[in-house]
Amino acid sequence: MSARDKQLVLVINAGSSSIKFSLFGAQADPQLVCKGQVEGIFTEPHFCAKNEAGEKLSDTPLPPSGHKNHDAALRYILDWLRGHTDGRSLAVIGHRVVHGGSSFTQPVCVTPEVLAALDETVALAPLHAPHNIMPMRVLAELLPAVPQVACFDTAFHRTQSEAAQLYALPYDFSQQHGIRRYGFHGLSYEYIASVLPAVDASAAKGRTVVAHLGNGASMAGLLAGRCQATTMGFTALEGLMMGTRAGTFDPALVFHCLTHLEMSVEQVSDLVHKQSGLLGVSGISSDMRDLHASDNPRAALAISMFCQHVAREAASLAAAIEGLDALVFTAGIGENDAEVRRRVCQQLAWLGVALDDAANRQRSAAPHRISTADSRVRVYVIPTNEEVMIARHALATAA
Ligand code: ADP
């Protein structure tokens, strides 16, 4: 047993209204110790935490004063963690960072220079970057001896060809301003690519489309585990319709809203990021479970549109990787929604996808195959685990 085996890795995933954390043992295959979050940071802050078996360790509202910002939420989490480390020390802290811009193509140790470079990415991801970066500064102050590693959701997509990354905008303009398809959910795709060899060795060496269908949703085409194409672009707005994001729409619509409908930039941004997608079409909810439970025809319309978008993008990505050996569903909807998977697969029957209905309805926390034995394209449900991917990167990068 090495000294590290007695240590811990803390993974921080800080968003606009929540800070999620996961604590792992610092071994080569990091094992979860506990996880939790402070949510409702600006409204009614609430802390909850569970152990590795999913049993509740804490579930408590935080006092409204003093915990209404990210800094205080992070300090609360650290205080709580001190009582749950069994005397083990932190070897490293890994952070999920949504946007790495063009500078960051792999995980990096956080230094003052890196923090300065990360500040430059705020313009690219104003909704996420400040929240991702803030905990690094707070933790550098509170735990100066513990190395920190930033892990980027964009990094996995840097293996795409230049042609796949470019928009058909003037080349020099794109170069000058860092305009390209960055792609997102890279840590999730990387995790799936890391477990695929054990699930389907031949697909891992071949052509796989992964559908990460959560509140944010995207898809990627992998060739031998490396990304060749993905649906999200310069920001996480492009591609599939999502919980509240519109996904791809004609950008000229923005000009129309600004000039003819006299909307402000903030109003248009709000419209396409927060009022669209499943919520906007259904008028009911951004949560797929609510839409299935509703008998409102607009809920049905939103579900149909979502499934059609996924099927269309799957075929488009299959063209980008010139074939399809396997299709993988992951994230909240991908892992849990048998009906969405059924409808997507039905629309892809012409590509050689044949679903095993009974296998599709079976629930399992482990990766499992849901296509028939003779389906030309193998279809899998593989639960994603971005946190363990960050823990692995943090340990490897800080070593
Ligand atoms: P994110 O990490 O992007 O917030 P998740 O991957 O947790 O999202 O997915 C959240 C979404 O998953 C929810 O909005 C909900 O629509 C969907 N979801 C979760 N469980 C189920 C389920 N049992 N059936 C259908 N959809 C589900």
TrEMBL record:
GO BP: any one term: acetyl-CoA biosynthetic process
Keyword Metal-binding: yes
Active-site residues, record numbering mapped to chain: 153
Pathway, per record: Metabolic intermediate biosynthesis; acetyl-CoA biosynthesis; acetyl-CoA from acetate: step 1/2
Any coiled-coil regions, as ranges: none
Record-listed substrate binding positions: 96
Record-linked Gene3D superfamilies: 3.30.420.40
Database matches in InterPro entries: Ac/propionate_kinase, Aliphatic_acid_kin_short-chain, Aliphatic_acid_kinase_CS, ATPase_NBD
Function: Catalyzes the formation of acetyl phosphate from acetate and ATP. Can also catalyze the reverse reaction.
Recorded family membership: Belongs to the acetokinase family.
Cross-referenced PANTHER family: ACETATE KINASE
Record's protein name: Acetate kinase
Species the sequence originates in: Andreprevotia lacus DSM 23236
Gene (UniProt): ackA
